[in-house]
What does this fold into?
Amino acid sequence: MRFHESPRVIFSLILAFGLTAATGAQAHDERWDPAGRFYFGLDVGAEYVDLAGIQGTVAGPFGLLDELGETDETFWTESIGAVLGFADGAGLSLPDPIGENARIELRGRYTRGDSDSSADILGSLAGQFSPADPTVVASIACLCIFQARASQETDLRTWNLDLLYRTDVELVDGVVVTPLVGVTYTNFRLQNEFTLLATDLVAPEFVVSKLRDDTTGHYGGLALGADLRARPMGFLEFSLGLRTDLMGVRSTMQSELDEMGIELGSESDGETDFAARVTTSLGVTLTAGPVELGLEGYANWLSYTPYARHPLSGTDDVSHIDEGDMWGAGWRASLTLYFP
It folds into this structure.
């Protein structure tokens, strides 16, 4: 198949799909038969994420306060995943009204990433945190200290679990579409710590104030998607995928402020919302008997991610949950083993 012939190929795929639906299955293509009934796979990867930046510090020279100390919006995460599946190549165990090689898969993934940043502050009133509850009077953090540093640390962790049904619908020789349907669950946890350190030359460096927040989201819902897969040879496969998850979300937040080790205030919040997640992928797989090696690049978008919004003045609301979206792009390398 030549790429410059893609318009004719797309037309022929659509036509072939219509003929398949009208007349039933085409002649069986053995190159798609699973290498075993049960399979187990592991993968590792990395993803570059783009979150909402979170503000937690105010500072300014000579009492003129201004926003300072936003968390990093973009950073790298690392992931590890596993899949346990059952393939019904003979068509005897799983219902498969539209295709063949029906499969049930249980997939899990753990992702973690962190980032930190800092900014120096100069002035007679070097800096402060607004309290989690602005009715609590937060003292100026560095009276008579002319140099300080505000630092921000972010930790992101996600756990994902899928239970999916997949099958292969042959379009033309060597090309199948693989629809999927299932249920999905994601646990999203975002933690931030804002620290204000006195760095005046006339005194040793010490921690003056800390503001911490911990936000968790529980996502659950329906997964729908399909992969377009081409196998020009029995050992080589290319795939193009699209998946959409439609989920309800329950999120909670806890924030705490302390100064010199003494708690000044804390707040908690919770809300229920809806989220959509869209993922596109492009991959290549090499097969040698019961072993598959895969490499995949992907991009995704999550419409709702919870985070803590902190007051930056005494007239603001208390710390509470706010929302933003999250973009990501990354890669995964996988190894899958098939068993009789």
User: Anything to note?
Assistant: The CA atoms of residues 42 and 108 lie 10 Å apart. Confidence is low (pLDDT under 50) at residues 1-26, 124-128, 135-144.
